[in-house]
User: Fold this.
Amino acid sequence: MWRDFYGKLDRVQQARGFKIAASIAIVLLAIGGFVAYWLANPAPAVDTAPIVQPAEVEAETPGLTPEEKAEYKSEVERYQRAVAQLMAGQTDKTSVAVGFAAAAGVVVGAIWLGLGLTLALFVLAAAAVVAPLAAFGSTRDWSRLLGGVALLGASFTVLMRLLSMTFSGSHPVLAIARNTLAEAVRLKLSLLFIVILLFALASVPGMLNAQTPLRYRVQSFLQYATGGSFWFIAVLIVLFSVSTVATEQRGKVIWQTMTKPVSSAQYILGKWLGIAGLAAVLLSVTGVGVFFFVEFLRAQPAHGEIGPFKTRDGDTLSEDRRFLETQILASRVVVENEPVDLATNDPAKFREAVAGYLKEIHDSNAAFDPTDPTNQNDVAKSLNDQLERSYRAVEPAPGWKTYTFKGLADARDKSILLTFRFKIDAGSNRPDVTLKITFAFDRIGLITWDCPLGQYQTITLPPNVIREDGTLSVGVINGAFYGNNLRLNAEPFSFPKSALAVSYSAGSYRLNFARVVFILWVKLAFLAMIGVFAGTFLSFPVASLVAFTVFIAAESTNFIQKALVVFDDMDNKGNVVMWKWVIVRIAESISGIFKLYGDLQPTARIVDGALLSWSQVAVGTTVLAGATGLIYILAVAIFRRRELAIYSGN
Amino acid sequence: MNRDTLNQLVAGAVLAVGMVVSGVTAVRLSVLAARHKLVYTTTATEGQPPQVALGIAMGAFRGIFVNLLSMRAEEMKEAGRYHEAVELAKAITTLQPRFPKAWTFHAWNLAYNISVSTQTASERWRWVNDGIELLRDHALRANPNDLHIHKELAWIFEHKVQGVTDDSNIYYKKMLAKEWHTVLGPPPQYDPGVRDRKTAIEKYVAWLRPISTAPSTLEALYSTENGEIIRELVAALKQIGLPEEIGGYEFLTRYEKDRAAAQSSRRQAYESSFGPNNKAFRALVEDPKFVSAWPPFLAQCRAHLLRDHYNMDPAVMVRFTQKYGPIDWRNPAAHGLYWAAIGVEKAAPRVSVQNSTDFDFVNTDRVVIQCVQELYRTGTIYFDYLPTVITGDGYYVADVDPSFAEVYGQILDEIRTRSKVDDLFQRGWSFYSAGYDNFLRDVVRYFYRRGDIGLAEKYRNVLLTYDGQNLNDPQRNADLARPLEEFVQMELVDRQSSPNVAISEVNSSLLGSFFALRLGDEERFKSQLEYAQRFFLYFREKQAKFTAVNPNDARMDVLGDNFPDLAGITFARQLQLWPLDDARTAYLGAPDWLRQYAFNIMKQMYSENLAREVALGGKKFEELFPEPAGMDAFLAAINERIRIKQLRTPKSINDLR
Assistant:
């Protein structure tokens, strides 16, 4: 009876009429749902009154000329617009629209796969399990976990079927890719990984502590969900890509493929396409999950708020919210201060300084040849470094040291809040010491900061600190003013390299997130080709070891480069130590090869709210695609030479 | 007997002997290990989080994994991503809970690095307190005898909370005072005749004793003399349906709030805002049936909270009170002292010649000494509990507690014997002696300013005669031999802007002026009061700085922000210490603005007793202590100030424009 029932249901869901009707219904439902949401959450009424009242301007600017008053008003309005832009986050319905569209897309996809009613039954069954669990406090966490797993699992299944459908052509490459996809869900190893991944991702939200400030919750979630998913998928891809090629050869299953009119190039490409497709599906499911949970978190009250974007004391932004919106859910462009760079800015003066320096060394050491170009270059470099260090040091003395940041016109024009980030070093950076330092910015005056040593600090600045030419100047003094008295600190401090910067959000976090996910996929596709390449001529364990070594080396590039700064190949007498020399050369070569891979740092960027620009995406994609192509050619060349059917005598 | 049977018998005998020897030696070994504190805890699984199983399951890979996590934690710290560093440190301490450095790295990040990266006082306090709780409530449960963790915990109390380097330090002090007022209840009030150290200690011990001797469980409490009535009280409390756990911290907050409201001059205003829970609770507090049940019940709640939540032993608190002095546990230095001293006590038996370099007694003992010094400088706390609980802000001023003047010298020898670097008698100079010297000079100056010339002379003699004086200053004895006033003036040169000097100078001259009032010496009263005011204003001008982080309290606001408040509260407190007639003499001699602060307090203290004596021919309170002019306006002004202060909210850097 049940079989008949299912048979009938299946016939219904396979019928074209049902597919059309159901698709229309789903699209209408999605549109209706979004409109209902829109109506239930109207945007706040637009305040048509001027942002700054003339009376306020009069009160704040006694004695100024009308032009100065107008400028004051315009600057205040610029600042208030910047804050208003952040507040607009509460009424932004983009993510809801994307959510409805994504859900409708998956369901319509399922309908056209002939799985419409199956999906509906699955959702009902999941609801039947989740709803009772959600009713009790003790099991509510389980309901969330199981609900999340069901949602992610259903999306994964539908996307895999859609991808299989996409690969349904008769071309050998597509056929091999389709088989590889089928193998991925059939193979216990990869299935286990996929199930664990879905459970792990669904459980990450439950690990967040509701008492933690919202910005840290979002950051933690982004770090662990995005980074964790990538690593998990990467391990799966490496293992699966090696396994699918190596075990097919070992088990002689490959005979069935290669005895057909399939070339080596087609075989390798088909395998890679299937694995890269699997990576795309997994990354899509996890990426969409992460994106929507972040949007959900964003709509939660931040620390110091009584509701989302609403503070108890009526202030427009809580500190937690301000950090979240300007530094994390952002795509920040970071602008470092202009270096002193005397060699470029004042070459004559620099040449003079180098000549004086060379003479000084020669006077004290007759063996030193001041005309030797190597010596001249060394001295010029050393002098430039010294000047830069001196430029970054601030003595405890009256008088402002000024630093300039260029290229900020965009932030000024679009009224975007700036984040001024800095770190100071003084002496041995005693952790229990703070220095009072004073910054002077155009139009907002002095800010005195109680600054711990060796720790990053941030100050939010209004956009009106930027001059019309897009530069921002900050004066720094090593002390603080008390009334008219300047009290200097006892010791000098310096801003370490890259520790003095201004940043602003140059675009949408959401688009940045999409670019990050894309780059993660490009990396996975590269790893897939490494795995396939190793699997063509090595046994499974050896090929896995090779592929993992490449993966770990590529991911550790930044760490290796940092380690090389302090790892010397000489002993304390200046003699080269052979084994250290070998290590350094190997480490340098490896970190050199994978430098671009390491520099992309997609997860770190999304966690820090830093922009991954289109140009970086283009360069990264081109280079990694080139490397993937090169390895593909190598793999094909090797695979062609393989004797797949040697009679072993057994 | 065949060969097999013989073999079996021999094997059985060997087995039996082995088991007996093992049984005897294992017990003996365990006893020895516990006695010499060679085990983390006396129970193998105590303090071990269940996640440790994960670490054990990882086997040899645990070390590698922890190394990776440590490297990343350090990297995240350097990048300013402290929160992630904390998350990683959490994972490290979960995998290796017996690794003290990981705990302290974690706590330091919370209390020092993350806290200063936030810009509101309340958020900063949250992180600092998280650092404290991590070490006290978690790290020390996993490593109860580790000296390093004890020292770091003590340091956070002594430096971060008690010190003045953090912009929000006054806020931290208020929050800690609120917490410990709740946990232990208000400390004993001084009364006339309790001026000497010994009696003060006895009072504080008597205050803590019921807590230290309280049964560990409610069931055990029910089997005591008042057990049945306590059981009824607990049942009645449960019947009210309070949202908080009966006996927990929130419950004690309710009790202390109720007590403070009942004693407040604004009692009616507070009571008018009571909801049904508070009303029902008040009824139980005032129910004569439960009068005998409340004290033992509260003592048990407090003891339970101390042991289970704060990981503190009330018996040790009593012992330290006896050893060090009348400790007010609302003072951060009290906790610094507790953890440093208990750390030394627990570590001392574990030291041997081989492992002596593993124990940093010198720095831990320094924390002990610094905390004792802080308890002398700021041991008397005036704290307004009720407004702090209700609004998050209230009056907090810390004053000198002379009871701690003696103890520094008493513990110096004990500490010196533990130190390997303080070889005074070889070198003729030591840090400990230098510290003690400075401390005694402050003591002399304080007693002199207070008008207690006898005590000032006594401590100058100690300075001149104690064993272990440094020999590096040939001028020292000549300076000490100067006339007392000249010596005190010399001590003040260049030190007026130090908060500790300000506290002792202002408070001691205020006390000196009130003594003069009692003696009828109006001229000295005015000159001392004027001196206190001048010093107060000078210090405020030099040091009080409001910050974006904590705009309600200046960073060095150790004396409060208003001189009349400080003088008035000190005056009121001093009148309570004197006998009625002396208090009346001083009251009548004081100007109205000072009397206004004391009037209601004196009324509360004396009016009932005096009313009873009217029938016997005594005088009414109002006759002895006439109401000062402008009392209503004064109270209205105070209320208005409280209201305005509540409206002042923390501002972010956005407001600096």
